[in-house]
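Is this the right way to post structure tokens for a design question? Let me know if I should format differently. Anyway, here goes:
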């Protein structure tokens, strides 16, 4: 039985990945800095441990005996968080550095690193009509300040640990992952979850208004969590060591995203635009040519189908009086 470590396992993507791996009968060690009571999802079939992986001794404990590592640990959130916590986001480089060192020392077979579309050159994302971002568009380097630089630097470390020490690293650049069992309030939530929450709250309160960050014309693509997990497995098991986009090519504006969720909820809302709020780049979309050419794969879940599942879960959480962690 293959032994697998998932870091950031108490988070949204990490929790889903642990659930998938345990169902596939991997022996999973799940690690996160949060207390176990605050994990988004815990599997009774995994070994669940609270550890601060910015400390290298803890990384050595975590990797001991593991065949593969999925490093998803990071201090991050939606645009509202990463634009106002740049130093905190960059401190995640301690986790990545120490995890790579510990994995190399332990002779780990494969090391997956979760990067982000925030590594891409900002000048290529100034228009709502921007083309899909190819992997080469990360250079010349001009990533999202703070979080994007941390991810880009850590990508380079993965490359050089492969070159210098033979550690088989794999890197995926996530594009706006969403779905059930994730953050939907508290400041770290991303656009799909935030808008689902706002629509649910407006519907329950009978106050048919919604506040949108920016002018609503900024455009993004969003990838459903099940596709994200499938893509992680594909990329980890492949032979390509270069960073790969992992996202949907279904591009929509924030206004269109709101309209889709209104349709799901059966409600129409009056929009108020908060132009001073964090809103990121004007346009960002994934170019999935590499996914198709190298892995013969790409995300399958349509945005509407994924939003329906996400909205239903957030609605149930809210009416039951629960808050996300």
């Amino acid at each position: 039985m293959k032994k697998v470590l998932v870091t950031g396992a108490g988070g949204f993507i990490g929790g889903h990945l642990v659930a998938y791996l345990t169902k596939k009968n991997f022996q999973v060690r799940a690690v996160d800095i949060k207390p176990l009571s605050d994990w988004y999802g815990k599997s009774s079939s995994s070994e669940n441990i609270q550890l601060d992986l910015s400390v290298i001794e803890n990384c050595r404990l975590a990797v001991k005996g593991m065949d593969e590592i999925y490093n998803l640990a990071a201090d991050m959130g939606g645009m509202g968080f990463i634009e106002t916590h740049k130093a905190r986001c960059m401190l995640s480089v301690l986790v990545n550095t120490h995890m790579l060192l510990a994995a190399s020392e332990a002779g780990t077979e494969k090391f997956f690193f979760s990067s982000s579309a925030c590594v891409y050159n900002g000048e290529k994302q100034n228009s709502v009509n921007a083309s899909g971002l190819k992997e080469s568009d990360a250079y010349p380097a001009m990533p999202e300040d703070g979080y994007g630089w941390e991810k880009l630097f850590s990508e380079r470390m993965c490359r050089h640990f492969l070159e210098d020490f033979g550690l088989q690293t794999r890197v995926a650049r996530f594009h706006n992952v969403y779905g059930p069992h994730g953050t939907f309030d508290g400041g770290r939530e991303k656009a799909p979850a935030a808008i689902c929450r706002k629509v649910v709250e407006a519907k329950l309160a009978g106050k048919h208004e919604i506040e949108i960050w920016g002018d609503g014309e900024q455009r993004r693509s969003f990838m459903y969590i099940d596709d994200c997990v499938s893509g992680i497995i594909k990329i980890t098991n492949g032979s390509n060591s270069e960073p790969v986009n992992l996202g949907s090519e279904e591009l929509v504006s924030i206004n269109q995203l709101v309209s889709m969720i209104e349709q799901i909820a059966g409600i129409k809302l009056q929009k108020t635009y908060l132009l001073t709020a964090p809103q990121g780049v004007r346009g960002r979309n994934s170019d999935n040519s590499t996914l198709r050419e190298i892995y013969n794969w790409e995300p399958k879940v349509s945005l509407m189908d994924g939003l329906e599942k996400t909205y239903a879960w957030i609605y149930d959480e809210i009416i039951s009086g629960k808050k996300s962690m």
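Format looks fine. Someone answered above. Worth noting: The first strand starts at residue 3 and ends at 7. The chain has eleven helices and 14 strands.
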